[in-house]
Amino acid sequence: MEVQQFLHMNGGEGETSYANNSTLQRTAITKVRPIVEEVILDLYCTSFPKKLSIADLGCSSGPNTLFVISHIIDTMEKKCRQLGHPLPEFQMFLNDLPGNDFNTIFRYMLPSFYEKINVEKGVGLEQCFLAGVAGSFYGRLFPSKSLHFIHSSNSLHWLSQVPQGLQDEMGIPLNKGRIYLAKTSPPSVFKAYFAQFQRDFSLFLKSRSEEVPGDGRMVLILCGRRNSDPSSSECSSQWELLAQALNDLVSQGAIEKEKVDSFNLPYYAPSIQELESTIEKEGSFRLDRFEVIDINWDGSEDDNEETFEFDKLASAQNVSKCIRAVSESMLASQFGEVTIDELFRRYEQNVVQYQSDGKGKFINLVICMTRKG
Length: 373
Known about the structure:
The chain is of the alpha/beta class and 373 residues long. It contains ten helices and seven strands. Helices cover 44% and strands 15% of the residues. β2 (89-96), α4 and β3 (128-134) form a beta-alpha-beta unit.
């Protein structure tokens, strides 16, 4: 699978679009807002730059796309007003893969964004310059030492490619019936996934180190896990339920077994220790802060599972729509669009059953780093 061609969130503003099914991701961004605010203010107060260059990597398309940028401008406006400083110019870059729905961002979202910050903050077109940058963040995107701050949310768990080494010498798939890491996956599959993550994340850090000067900052949010087991339910259950739905369609003859056996997601949820060791080994950034945040699968913000009663069907529908919005492009390329509706109907049923004792949780890891001088 050519990841750059097929990995993109569902575009547009329809029922199954990412724009209408990204509450989960917005919840994560909202919970991390105080950390972003602290980092950007510390960065600004270190040297009081007259221009701030900021990149949001893996911006996607929808209501979350300009959420972080709007918050940064709001934070800076309050601080500069407090200090009596003129507001710096903002150079904002929105990055995602070429298949991202940039048209919706620039045609429908950007005009209202500019109008909002102009009315509320007095920030006009002459002070906030926003551009799209299409390309993989597993490589260089910007000129040397051109960025002050980098943000990325819900993106770095997606790999640059499906790991190599998932077939034996005869070309037979090793991870049959599974689409990600499971308890029954062979050890070589675990090794291949981890090796791909290490290569990708190291390249990400190296690329950003060339684009960010000394004391430049990064805040990264990605799906991960607390424990050492990469097949742990805290990072793989949502994909196991999808694999079950795919295998149900195989048993009914709706899709070919060989297509499921050869399909693996370009996804890896790292542990805290794996991230720390990769950052230390690559060596370009200093790890300043690590946070772990639990997010309900359906994006709801109630954390009291003992007393919270929830509509299991409505919750499962939200989970199904979210997973569909982020994975449909890859699934349709492998299995055909005709199977997608039935696949996610079955997936929804699986989620209802899984959540019978409470909501599933995503583990979000938050990493704050400073470029070493």
